[in-house]
Amino acid sequence: MNPYLEILIRAVGAFVAVLVITRVVGKSQVGQLTVADFVNAIVLGSIAASLVTDLKENGWYYAFGLVLFGLLTLICEYGSLKSRPLRKLLEGEPTVIIHNGKILEHNMKKLTYNLDNLMMQLREKNVFNIADVEFAVAEPNGKLSVLLKSQKQPLTPEHMQIPTRYQGIPSELIVDGVVIQQNLKQNNLTEDWLYRELEKQGVKSVKDVVYASLDSEGNLYVDKKEDTMQNITDITDKLPGKMPQ
Prior knowledge:
By secondary structure, the protein is an alpha+beta fold.
């Protein structure tokens, strides 16, 4: 067989296999990557790469290893759902790094966690003073969860006992010039209503709309395709510090 054709066939097979394994294992592999997940991803990628490029070996060996490793990963995921001790063994557990504004050095040593990493992750949470922190917890996926002291937490309407209105998720009605019929029906709306609302905003055709959504208060947001580069250039030229051409 032609080597290029064989690589093509192997690449498609490896891509499909990795895609199926990833979808079966679940989104946690991508969204909340723990140390075990990271190792699994590296091994799966290594096997898939060998399947594609190592033409000296029988591709079925690598394919079998890829499927076998995927099954082992799936078994571990299922076992961790049923057994909390197994889940703690495979994924680890949260560790308190800061308590009441004090750094717990012994916990940091267990995780080989240094002060530079701690300060960086605190800044990512918009926290610049350790004394303001009630709890900081290192999660199994490497992220830092931070709870500020009560007197340092942002003021909310609940604190002020101010009533608020319900604010739901906007419903998409038009995406890339295509009307989302299902969302129209869910909101008990018709295309005629949508066209009338678009006309009020100077839109002649649905195809002229990049995105349109309806918020919980019935307000229609419309973004048109006529946002040309010329308009953007005009705005950019007015920015402070912009040198005249």
